[in-house]
Amino acid sequence: QVQLVESGGGLVQGGDSLRLTCAASGLTFSAYAMGWFRQAPGKEREFVAAFSWTGSRTFNADSVKGRFTISRDNAKNTVYLQMAYLKPEDTAVYYCAAGYLTPVSRLGSPNSYGYWGQGIQVTVSS
């Protein structure tokens, strides 16, 4: 079965960097768009970043542009989220998601992803 396993979360101070890793198994990784979403307490799940299944385009939410970078390694079935200049408002549970042949126009919608990881906590202290 498909599994997405996140790692790399934790507690950091404002201004620090952190890299999240999502290891995928049970799917043809190159056929899936990969996304990162996050959900803070009392808030809806929101889009953070995505990498198209074609491997040619990346997208970031405005709130993380210039600070977060998504990358993928198809040889390792892995997607990464490099986070820099972290702020307290980045505190959330971060989820990795996979969407089969998801069109670019739909990468920002959680409904476009059929598989999700269990989530990992990122806490940024001020």
Structural description of this entry:
By secondary structure, this protein is mainly beta. It has strands at residues 3-7, 10-13, 18-25, 32-39, 46-51, 58-60, 68-73, 78-83, 92-100, 115-116, 120-125. The chain is built from no helices and eleven strands. The mean pLDDT is 96.
Write a brief structural summary:
The protein has strands spanning 3-7, 10-13, 18-25, 32-39, 46-51, 58-60, 68-73, 78-83, 92-100, 115-116, 120-125.
Structural class: mainly beta
- Give the total of beta strands: 11
Q: Cα-atom Rg, whole angstroms?
A: 13 Å
- The low-confidence runs, each spanning 5 or more residues with pLDDT under 50, are none
Shape: globular
**What is the typical, i.e. mean, pLDDT?**
96
* Percent in strands: over 45%
What count of helical segments does DSSP give?
A: 0
> Helix amount, in percent?
under 10%
Largest sheet: 7 strands, mixed
Can you write the helix and strand succession as a string?
Answer: EEEEEEEEEEE
Termini Cα gap: 40 Å
SSE map:
Elements: E1 3-7, E2 10-13, E3 18-25, E4 32-39, E5 46-51, E6 58-60, E7 68-73, E8 78-83, E9 92-100, E10 115-116, E11 120-125
List keywords for this structure.
126 residues, mainly beta
